[in-house]
Structure formats: C-alpha cells, structure tokens
Description:
Order of helices and strands: EHHEHEHEEEHEHEHEEHHHHHHH
Distance between the termini: 31 Å
Helix content: 40-55%
Radius of gyration: 19 Å
Number of domains: 2
CATH architecture of the largest domain: 3-Layer(aba) Sandwich
Strand content: 5-15%
Amino acid sequence: xxxxxxxxxxxxxxxxxxxxxxxxxxxxxxxxxxxxxxxxxxxxxxxxxxxxxxxxxxxxxxxxxxxxxxxxxxxxxxxxxxxxxxxxxxxxxxxxxxxxxxxxxxxxxxxxxxxxxxxxxxxxxxxxxxxxxxxxxxxxxxxxxxxxxxxxxxxxxxxxxxxxxxxxxxxxxxxxxxxxxxxxxxxxxxxxxxxxxxxxxxxxxxxxxxxxxxxxxxxxxxxxxxxxxxxxxxxxxxxxxxxxxxxxxxxxxxxxxxxxxxxxxxxxxxxxxxxxxxxxxxxxxxxxxxxxxxxxxxxxxxxxxxxxxxxxxxxxxxxxxxxxxxxxxxxxxxxx
Length: 336
C-alpha cells in the first residue's frame, strides 16, 4: 500500500461532508499531527474506511496527516509499534494478547473488523470438507506470525488437533501465492483473510469455507496504539476514530468512490476493476457489527473468547493480566 496523506480531494460519489459524524470544531485549525499507520497487508480495500477518510478529507479536518505503510503480518506491525516506528497499527487480537503477555502495553481502540476477518477454506470438490478431515495435513497461512495463524490454531485445537502432531502450518503468502500453493499440492487448506478469498476466487479457484459457525463471530483486526500514546494524545486518537467512523459511513454509501480512493493508495490493486469490486463486496460487510452494537466497539465477551481459545491452544500460557486493558471503547462511544 502506498503512502498517503491526510489531505483529500473530495472526489468519489459524494461530498466530503456526507459522513454523519462531524469533526471537532476548529480541528484543522491547530497544529497538524503526523502519524504513521502500519497495516499487516498491502490491500487498500481492507482499510476502505481509512481510504475514504483520507480521500474525503476527514483526517485533514481533524488536523491529522497520515503516512500509511504495510508490512507482512500482525507480528511485524506490533514490533514496529513497540520500537516507536508507528503510532497506530492494525493488528489482530491474538497477537495483541501475546504482546501484552510479554509486557507490551498495546491497546486496541477501534474494532475495524467486527466479524471474523478470517476463514478456513479448501478447494471445492476436494476430499477435505471438515476440520476433522485436516488431520495429518498441511495448512497454508499467509505469514508465520499473522493473526490468521492464531485464528486457525484455535479452530483446530477446538477440534482436538495439535499443531506439529496432527497438522502443520506452511507460510505460503497471500492471494495469488496461496492459489499457486493449492495448485502445486503444497497445502490442502488455507487460513484466509476475507480479501484473500476474494482474490483467489477472482483467479479462478473455487473454494469452500469450512469455518465452524461459532468462529465466524470472532472479531478481527482493529486499530491500536501504545497505552502511552493514547494517554498522552487522547485528542489525536479521538480525531482519528471520528475520521474512521465518517469514512466507514461514507464508504458504505459510495462503492465506486471508495474504490477510487483505495486505488490512490494501492494503484496495482485498483487496476483490476473486477477484483477491486469483489474485494469491496467481501470486506465491507465484515466490518459491520452482527448485533446492535455501534460500529467500532469491541465486545467484552469477544475478548474473553479469544483469550480462552489462545490459552486452550497453548499460544498463551495463561490468562493475561487485566484483559480489559487490552482495548478501550471510550473513543468510539464518545461519538455515539
């Protein structure tokens, strides 16, 4: 994903003021705050709300300028945040809990993917059509430290399968690379982000999702910052949150304009119009809450479910201290 800035051109299908959440009075009149936002995947459509917030000028109205960069998975996102190389990141909850267990104060403040970002998929028509069928098999993942690994491990553990004994993970890359891994026979299943599913299907690979229903309710990646940054810059986090909410609302009403804004951030992704449309259709519904919760809010029981599964799978030695401190809803709720 290319670097972006907070300035917008007001392009797309609607005016910059179409979002329902208004900026703070005089937010753009003060000193500009420069932020680096680090993503675990180069897809711009994965962060459609951020693209809309940049393109429609919502971040600029908050006095925020962003440089958006992508790395390979949630692990590197968190490492860079801890090293002070990014103020805001988009990690998954599993890696965040692991980081907190190691003493790092990372807090998620906006639930970007209210529904599961991931799913376990197999080739349509293959002999592997259930989780239990994966015993003794190799399962592909995008990266060794991505949130999709925690997610798949939890599902397999729940089915009574133990890593390196009953199955193994193989990092094969995203999208097209994963398609090639299926075609070579390197893997029989893949722990796929929703965007990867859209890419693979657009490349002609017919897939079946075999994710158990109870795991589809696990929320995915969200915007996070260090506890220190949040405490020292609450007005910046509030402004960023407000811009994301406005971007989300605008993007849901302006598909073509959102795709255009995302193409400004990732031109290569935007050149394939059919794929871009499929990505938008796949990603946007998973960002909206299943229940009547406000957009962006983290459910407390969802965090408990994530922790229970990580402990059960052995990824966490035990419950983390003060689970409630892994996230905050105060900034989203302030906009309700």
